[in-house]
Amino acid sequence: MYTIIKIFGSALLIYFISEVSKRSSLWGAILASLPFISIIAFIFLYEETKDIEKVSDLSMGIFWLVIPSLALFILLSQLLKRGLNFYPSLLVAIISTILLYFGMTLILKKFGIL
Question: Helix or strand or coil: residue 108?
Answer without folding.
Answer: helix
